Amino acid sequence: MKFGIVFVFLLTSNQISLAQIVNDYYYFTSYDIEDINALSDDDIIVDYNVNVLHLESRITDDNGTESYTSGLVLIPNKPCDSCPLLCFQNGEDYLLKEGENDLFSFGRIARIYAGLGYVVVMPDYNREFPDLHSATQATSAINLMRAARQLGSENFYFNYGLSTDVYLAGYGQGAHGTMALQRMIESEFSDEFKIIASSAMSGPYDMSDVMMDYTHGDIEYTPLNYLVRLYLDYKDLYPLGSLDQLFRPIFVPFIQFYFDGNLTLRELEQGFVNQLKMEFGIARPRDLLLPGVLNSIMTDTLHPFGIALRDNDIYDWAPKANTNMYYCLGDEKVPYENAIVSEEVMRDNGSRINAIQVDSERAPLSHKECILPSVKKSINYFKEVRFLTNNHDLINENDINFHFENEKLVIKMLQKPNVEYTLSINSITGQNIYQSKFKTDIHKVLLPKVNSGIYIAIISGDNGFHKTQKFVKP
Predict the structure, then answer these.
(1) Structurally, how many domains does the chain consist of?
(2) pLDDT in tens, 114-163
(3) How are the residues of the chain apportioned to helix, strand and coil, as percentages rounded to the nearest 5?
(4) Is 57 left (phi over 0), alpha (psi -120 to 50) or beta?
(5) Strands across the sheet with 400-405, in order?
(6) pTM for the whole thing?
(7) Do 124 and 172 share a domain, yes or no?
């Protein structure tokens, strides 16, 4: 059912003046609590039914140039005068069309976030969308977030209000988009959007080195069409040249058939596999390219494709908001080194970002298997940060110092105690995990085996001293 049109005026990232956006939306579907929980892990229980709208934004700038942004808006069915907004960027668009019982559907993940009380926007990723172009990803998401805010204030059927608080999450290509969106908001639109927390999961942040080394090395890698899709993403944005300047002649007609819509991505992929295995006995993306092209991309600083890749690296900056990256060692599509390199560079730049391993060496998880445990960690992380944000008056880091030393929590009171103090340590959900008494200004605690994350310490004394403070267990 189509409901109507809303006119709003938004500022795009690459313009100084206002541009007109026409929002056309329709009711997409709805899910009740039982539907969402039936497809959720036992550890994730949602609280609200969810309504889903599809929103289309046609953007016309001052020069008359029209562009198009679309996506889903998922609305928790609850009184919502000041709901937090969560932008979830998914991977490839086909995952939105997977069956209802697919535990790894990104559409399902967005429903869970909404069922927990967030108004969720989910930008469409389709073959016309340059989904690994950072500026396009960020601008499209910002426009959809603004449109959803305007829609909530003016829509009669699905009325909701949004606070300035924003949470960002994304997986795979969507994690690359999440980092791009966070960088743009923090550098240009921090007065409009207040990022409370961000979680990027299994993303290709280092496009020019880590991803190219891994996808175009000597090992077999799928999808083989990785560089083909990058060409499609970038060909109208960078002077990449024609297909026959990059790819071997035998593959050019098939790539063109795909560009023209006469082949599906799966059919193109299977054609690549068949031809390469017949020629080389192994299917490697590098063998799609003309001799010498890969070396030029990697070593020639003026090669247009290399410039495009470096332009869309998204790791050499310093996130300001609470930010976690999640990764899996067994990820066969997006190597975990993306997160390791990003954490190192971003911390050197002054950020407090964390790269968190989700699986283990004994039980490595594939790219698809990594989705659900990463999202669970993201959900719990957002809960922790929301709790601490809503109770910031309890936290005073000037009176007590917490740090870890040889796996022990060291608590240093800046004033020497003159009475006995009681220490209680609770999880973010309120479960007590440790309790003791101490009289010294430095107290060392060997915590029981608990997961890394944010915990709450409560210190009280007979003299009326009472202090509640967070700390992070690595």
Answers:
(1) 3
(2) 999 999 999 887 555 677 899 989 988 998 898 888 887 766 566 688 88
(3) 35, 30, 40
(4) beta
(5) 400-405, 408-413, 442-445
(6) 0.78
(7) yes
